[in-house]
Amino acid sequence: MTVSGGNGPIRITLTLPTGAEHIRLARLVASGLVAQLDYGLDDVEDLRIAVDELCSLVVEHARPASVLTVAYEVVDHMITVRAAAPTEGAGSGQVEADELSRLILMAAADEHTLSSADGEVVAWMRKRPASATG
Fold it and tell me: Over the stretch 62-83, which tens digit does the pLDDT of each residue have?
């Protein structure tokens, strides 16, 4: 895990095996990052759910026994999470998420994407605390 920050944006990169059993570490890092911000309990739980779903989608499309890289950035109380892993084949374009995953991400994150390019599957999301959205 690498961490940078200081007075500017906080950036953390976590690298772990693509096994689903390791995704809880990504959730813990996300919730720990926003615990010190204006995120209420519901916001923290939504973030944990969104990170779990985001990483699960990447792991589902990842090459077996590869590495999942999860990058977090916090700027002005907004967290951005990017999860990526090598995928089978060199194709690019949209990879499909099932309907339940799409609904979960729509409810728990403010923005999200899932795509594949250059032999890598990438999922991205952004979340602001409810206190910042109105």
Answer: 998 999 999 999 998 899 999 9
Architecture of domain 2-133: 2-Layer Sandwich (3.30)
Q: What is the pLDDT of residues 106-118, one digit of tens each?
A: 999 999 999 998 8
Q: Where are the domains of the chain?
A: 2-133
Calpha distance 62→15 (Å, rounded)? 14
d(Cα 98, Cα 95) in Å, to the nearest integer?
10
67: left (phi over 0), alpha (psi -120 to 50) or beta: beta
- Number of Cβ within a 10 Å radius of residue 61: 21
The number of beta carbons lying within 10 Å of the beta carbon of residue 20 is 13
Whether the CB-CB separation of 83 and 54 falls below 8 Å is answered with yes
